[in-house]
Amino acid sequence: MQQLDMNSEEFKTELEKTKQFTDKVCESQGWLYNTNEDVNEGVIMGLARHKLLYGKRFCPCFMVEPDESKPGKFKSTDDRICPCKPAIEKEIPENGVCHCQIFCTPEYIAEHS
Question: What is this structure's pTM?
């Protein structure tokens, strides 16, 4: 597994970009962050890590593997690139929260706060 220095300027810069990205996702979709900051921090760090290692913000909750059909490229289970299609189409509308639990509906937050 490729290593990444999480104290490097490169990682810190990507972490900030990823936080801005997730802020925009929340704003554009009308979602809120989970009230558990540890969940949000872990997911954002995972997204930033995947962006640096694999070139895309693959969901950190699912495995990433080499794409056999495209040498040098990667894919994740169910093609989970944030915000992923299963979260947008099924998980959040039905459960109020995505699999990673970072993105929630306002109703979900009201019920679980």
Answer: 0.92
